[in-house]
Amino acid sequence: MMLSELTLVLEHTDAKATNSEYLEAIVGENALGKPTQSTRVETARKLTQLYTLDPARPVFRIFRHFWEADVTARPMLAYLAATARDPLLREATLFVNSIAQGNTVSPSQISKYLSDTYPKRFQESTAIATAQRLASSWSQAGFLTGKVNKIRSKPIVSPVVVTYALVLGYLSGSRGKMLLDTIWTKILNRKVSEIADLAADASKQGWMNYKAIGSVIELTFPGLLTPLEEKASNEQD
Is 84 helix (H, G, I), strand (E, B) or coil? Predict the structure, then answer.
């Protein structure tokens, strides 16, 4: 997830920075304080792989828009943005969410989940390394706490986080009431009723429009998507 590196890059760049300006900050200006050119280039590659760092991509542009709005939301905003690019991280979140609050989560548990779920994908050593990376990402996002013994915890989910999750669902083609129950809202580890309440709060704060009349729910995101992005997401319906 590389939250600390991402945070430094965003602190070093303007909110309207271009992709080339992000890369220049990492590689040319060494905003992350990396010791060699090769490590700067590799860090830029990894961050680009996770987040694109490209405002031409709606997932990153809207993420950056919300990043400036709510400091407490940043870990989960970054996590959602990363899951939009990383299918394994996205799918594995459902595993960590299935573990009860307060229970210990060990690398061996995660490794077993990976081996059972993807039996032909991971060798034992690869599964352990991947499990450690997943545990690190979950700790950064707030799904786990503790340095040595990882304990299942509940991440911070604010109205801004819910809005971003709903936008991701919208970009994937979901509409209306279905937006409250997508993979993106499931990642948040909240009940559908809680998502609806947070969406209503987000609407009051002006982040989105939420209207509910009986069982009919309308969610829109004025100003967040371009006409072409609206068209592309509508074609996925």
Answer: helix
